[in-house]
Queue: 4 jobs
Job 1
Amino acid sequence: MAQVLGKAQERDKEKTRLSGWVLPKQETSYAPDGTWTNIDLDVTPPERRTWTAVSMLGYWVSDILSAQSWQIGASVLAIGLTYREAIWCVLVGSAVMSFAIAFNGAPGAYLRVPFPIWIRAAFGYTGGKFPVACRIVTALFWHAIQTYTGSIALTVMLAAIWPSYLDIPNHLPKSAGITSQGLLSHFLFWCIQLPFLLVRPHKLKWFFVFKAVVTITAAVGTTIAVCVQAGGSGDIWDQKPKVSGWTKSWLIVSTLTAQTGSWSTVGTNISDFTRYLKKPRTTYFQCAFFPVICFSIAILGIISASASKVLYGDYVWDPLTLASKWKSPGGRAAAFYCGLAWMVAQIGVNVSANVISASNDLASFFPKYINIRRAAVLCTITGGWVMVPWKIITSAQSLLNFMASLGIFLAPIIAISIADYWLIKQRRVEVPSLYDPNGRYAYHAGWNWRALLAMLVSIGPTLPSLVKNVKPSVDIGGASYIADLVWYYGFISAFLVYLAVTTLWTPAGALMSEAEFAAARHAEVIFLRVRDKQYSES
C-alpha cells in the first residue's frame, strides 16, 4: 500500500511540471522524427472504423434534434414571415448544406484522417492552423449556447419535481445577465455533461441512438400536446406575412443564409466523423437524410409555435418554454420528460458537433501535451464559463444573426476544401506528407498563398455584416445586401477564386499524377501492414 501511495504521489508531483503532461508519442504515426503527434490525430486504425450508414444516420438525428433546430423554423414566424417561407428556407438551406457536408466529408472517409490533418493539403502544413483556429472559435460558441440551453432543460426538469426550485432567491446583480437559480442549473448541467465529453467518438454509437429515441418522442409529443390543447394547429395555414416587397424578399434571403450557415460548423470538420466509416462511400448518404431530418424537426417547431399563439397569445418558439407552462400533475410529468429529453439532446450535440471537433482541432496545435480528452476539458471550461453563454442569445433575431455570421469564416473554408480535394488534387493525396512539415504540402514556408487569397477575397466584403451582427445599430449601407448572402457569397467566391488562382499558378509539387499516386498508395499499404504487425507484437 505504501508503495502504491508513493507512486501516486510521484505522479502528482510530476504533473506540477510541464514535462509531466507530455503524451506518449504515437509510434505508429506517419510523422517524421522530431514532429509530434498522438493517436487522435493519426490515421484511423481499422478497429476504430466502426460506423455504418445507420451509425451516420443516428449521428445526424442526434446532432440535428436540438432546441436550436426546433427554434430556427419557429423563429421565422417571430420575424414576420409565414410557414411557407420557413419551410422553403429549411429545405433549400439544408439541401445545399447536405451536398457540402457529403463532399467535404470525403477526405476523412477515404484518407482516414481528421479535419486538422486533411486541411493541410489545401492551406499548407502551417497555414492549415488558420482554418482550424476558426473552427475552434465557432465550436466554442456553439458549445456555450448548447450548454446554456441544456441548463434551461435541467431547470424545467427540477421545477417539474419541485416547483419551489424556481423560487430560489437571487443574489446576483441584473448586470450579470443570470439569476442565482439559473447559475445553479448551469453548474449542475455542466457537471452532468462533463463525463460524456470524455468518451472517445468511435464508442458513441449507442448514445446517439438513445438520444434520438428520447428526443423524437419528446418533440412529437410536445407538438401533439400543444395542438390538442389549442384545438388544432393554430393560424399557421392562414397566416399572412407582416412584411412585403423588398423587405420580405431580403428577410427570406437572410433566413436562408442563416439556415445554411447554421450547419457550417460541423460541415467544416465533418471529416472528424467520416474517418470512422467502415465504407467511405457512406459519406454520400448524407445528401439524402440530412434535409429530411432538418425539415422534420423544423416543421414540428413551426406547428407548435403556431398552436402556442392560440394558448398563450404569442408565438412560443422555445420547446423548453412550452414545457415549463404545463402545471397540472400530468403536465408536470410531461414537462419532466421533455426537460430530460432536451437535456440529453444538448449533451448529444455538444458531444457530436462541438467538443469533439474543437478537441481534435486543439490537439493538432499542441499534440505533445493535448489529446482529445484533455482538450475536451479545456473546451468545456472555456465554452461553459469563460464565454458567458447566457449573454449570447437574447431573442429570435439575434439567434438568426449569430448563425448567419458563422458562415463568414467557415463557408470559404468548406469551399476551398472541396475545390482542392475534388478538382485541384482530384482525390490524389499523399497521406504521409500531411504529417510532414517539409513534405509535399509545405508550399511556401508552410503556407499556400492561393488559399489565403481566396479567403481574403471571400471574407473582406462580408466583414461589415460581422460588425452589424455584433452591433445592430451600426449602419453598413449597401453592404447589408452582401450580409444577407454571406454564406453563399463566401462559398462561391472562395471556390471560384481558389480554383482560378490555383489553375493559373499551379503548385506542381503538391500535385500527383495517377502513376505517382498509385505508387504512393502501394508504399502506404506496405507501411501500414508493417506498422500494424509491429503494433500487435509490442
Job 2
Amino acid sequence: MSLGFYFDMTRCSGCAACRTACQDRFDLFEVGFAPRRVHRYQTGTFPSVAGYVTSVSCNHCEKPACVENCPTGAMFKNKDGLVLHDDDVCISCQTCLNVCPYGAPQYIEAENLVVKCDTCNALREGGYLPVCVDACPYRALEFGDLNELRLAHGDDLVQEVSVLPSADVTGPNLLIKSREAALESGYREVTY
C-alpha cells in the first residue's frame, strides 16, 4: 500500500484554506510559510488565456532524494511509506532543502528547524484527516491509499503537470486531476 495525496485541480478555487490550516497546525503564521503551498498560474496570451491553481506539499515519494541524501537519517520513510522528519536527529544542514525537486522541506532560521508535511501523522493515528484535506471547502484534496484514490477518481489522473518536476525523478505519491492548461508549457506564476 502506498499512501499519498489526490488533488483535483478542476475543483480548487485557490482559496488557500488548505495552506492556512497547515500553517495553523504547525504554528507558522509568524514565519510566513507552511508545508502546503498554493500557487496560481496562467498560460496563453490574450484573448486566449487559461489559469489554474496548484496545492502542493511533500509528495512522500517512492524514491525520496531527501531521504537518500540526509547525512543523519533525520529524513526517513516509515512503515506506511511516508517520508517523515525527526527533529531530534536533524542537524539543520539543509541538504534536504537542496535536493528535493519539489521544495517540500523548509527551513525556519529563527528556530534552526526543518519542517515538512508529515500528513498530520499524529492526527491520522487518531482517525482524523490531514488538516489540509479537512479544511478544503471544495473537497479538492484527499489523502489515502493511492490505488483506492485511482479507483475512486478514474483513469485520467496524472502525477505531474508542467510546473512540477518529472515524476520519473522521485516517484511522487501524488495523483492530480488536471486542467488542460496545466499540461501546457509556457506557464507563468501570477500573484493577486
Job 3
Amino acid sequence: MTLQDRERDVLTTIIEVYIATASPVGSRAVSKISTLGLSPASIRNIMADLTEAGYLDQPHTSAGRVPTPKAFRFYLDTVMRPSPLAARQRRRIAGDLATAGLEVGDLLRRASRVLAGLSLQVAMVIAPKQADARFKRIDFSLLNPGLIMVLLVLQGGLVRTRVIETAPEVTADNLVSYANYLNDLFGDMTVSEVRARLVRELEEAKRTVNALCRQALTLASSALDGEREAASEVIVDGTSNILGQPGFTDAEHLRELMRVLEERTILLELLDKTANELKTVITIGGELDRAALADVGVITAPYGAGSHPLGAIGLIGPLRMDYAKLVPVVNFTADTLSRLLDRRF
C-alpha cells in the first residue's frame, strides 16, 4: 500500500501522539491535532485502511489504535527528522566525559552512564577489539639485566604491558633503537596486520646479518605472544530504566528482556554491525529476530579514533521511544567519545 498524503498525515499524527502518551490513539484525538480538517468519521475510515494495511493495531480493550513496527519503520525512514540537541545536554555530555579516567574502559563506562542518565533508557557500548585497534607505539624499559618491561599502546587508548626476558647484555640504548625501528615498521597497522607482518619479517630476518632487526623483531614477537583476542566487552548501564515503562509491564516479557540484556550476545551483534557500517542505525521490532525484543527499538552509532572505527554505542528502549530527540543524544555522545579518544591516545 502506497500511502497518500492524508493517510501519511494521519499515521504520523497517531505515531507522534502514541510516542508522547503511550496510549492507544482514537480518531477524535487525531481530528483535534491534525491540520487536515477531516471529521472523526473520515479519520476512522483512514485508520481502518491503515489497520488493514498493517500500519496500525487495535488492542482488544480500546477503541483507539497503536502503531505497529511497520508504521515505525515508515516513520523513521520517511518522516522523522532529528531535533537539535540542547546546549545544556551538549555541555553535560562533554563535561562528564572530559572528567573520566585516563583508561579507555573508564571513558566507555562513563559514556554509557551519561547516555543512560540523559535518555532514561538502557545504554550500551562495545569496547574496542585489540585485533582491530591500530598500533600506535611500543616502548621498552630495562628493569634488570635480562629483564625488560614492554609497553604496547594502541590507538583508542588500549594499553598492554608485559615483562619479558631478554639477553643480559641488552642495554637501555639498545631498547631505544629497537623501539624506534619497530615504531617505524608497524606505524598505523592494526594488531592483526602487525602479527602477520611479524611472521614475514621474522622469516626474512633469518637470512639477514642485521642483529638490531632480529633482536627487535624477537622482542616484538615476545610482547605479542600469549595475548589472546578476547570477545569484545559490552558495557550496559540503566537497565532499571525499563522497569515500569509502558509496554514492559508484563512480568514474563520483562524477565525475557532482562535475560537478553544479561546475555549480551545480541547486543554484541547489533553494536558490531554498526561499528562496521560506520553510520547511525535504528533497528526495531521484528528486525531484531528475538521475541523478547518485538516491542523494542535500538539506536546505535559508531565511534573511533581519527578515521579508524573502534566500536559503537547505543540505546535500547520501547518501540515508542522519541527517536527524534534520542538520535542526536546518541550521535553527540559517540562524536564526543571519538574526539576524546583521538585527542588522548
Job 4
Amino acid sequence: MTALNPTVLACHGAFPFGQVSQFAGIQAIVENVAEANKVHIIDLAIKNGIQWTILIQALASRQHEYRLELLKITAVATEAKDLIDGTGKRLSSFAQSLGVPFAFKVVMVSDMLDLKEDFFELDAEETIVSYAAFAFRSMLVAPNRIENIMKVLRVMNPCLMVVTEVEANHNSPIFVNRFIEVLFYFSAYFDCIATCMEQDSKNREILESVFFGDGIRNMVAAEGTDRKVRNVKFDVWRAFFVRYGMEEAELSMSSKYQADLILKTFACGTCCTLDMNGKCLLVGWKGTPMLSISVWKFL
C-alpha cells in the first residue's frame, strides 16, 4: 500500500486508536463471512482503505479451507473520486499479490439523499457487509441523509454493519458546553500525541495545526450549518440505529482479543483503555473515551 498521505500513515503507525478499531471491526466481519464464497463490502467512508488490507490478508489465509470466488468493495462517496480511485488501485494490487479475487466499485452521488439501491452492482449469491468508520458524524447536521442510507441498506440486507465513531459530545448548540467538551477530549488527544510522537516531528506539526486545528476551530466557533464537524456519544447513535430498525450485536471475544493484542504492540499501549458500553467497545486514553466500535444487524 504505497502513495498514502505521509501524515496519515505516520498517525496510523504512531497512535493505537485506528488500528484497534480496524482490527476489532474486521474480526467481526471475518467471523460473519467465514463460509461465504462471495463477499461484498459497502464502505460509506473508505478514505485510504488501509483497513481492507487486514480483511484481504485474513481471506487469503483461509483460501485452502473456503475458496473465495470474489471480494468486492464498493466505496460510497460524494466527493474526492480521484483519491478513491487511487485507493481502489492500491487495494486491487494488494489483493492480486495475495491471490485474492477482487473487484473495486465506486458509487458517487452528489448528495446522500440521492443514494439508491439501483446504484450498486449486487449478486444474489454474495454476503453483504456495511462498514461505516466516522461516516455518520458529518451527516448529523442533516439526519435525513442517514435515514436515506439506512433505507437503502435495509433493502440490500447486509449481514452486519460495523460502525466506528468518535466518543464525544461536540454537538451542543450551547457554545460553553461545546467548548468544555472539546477542551477535555482534545486535551486527552494532545496528551496522546505528546506521548506517541517526537516533539519536532513534521507530521506532528501538520496533524496539530491542520487536521486538528481546523476541526477544533469549526467545532467550537461555527454555528448552524457552518458547523460541519460534529460528534455525539454512542448512546445517541444507539438510539439512532434502534429507531432505524436495527439490533446491536455482541462483539465477540475474538474481536476484543484483537483489540487487546494490537494495544500490546504499541509502546504507549498501556495508556489506552478498553471498556464496554453494553455490547459496544470503547477505546480510551488514560480513562477518557476516544472512540466506539459497534456492530449492528437489521431486524
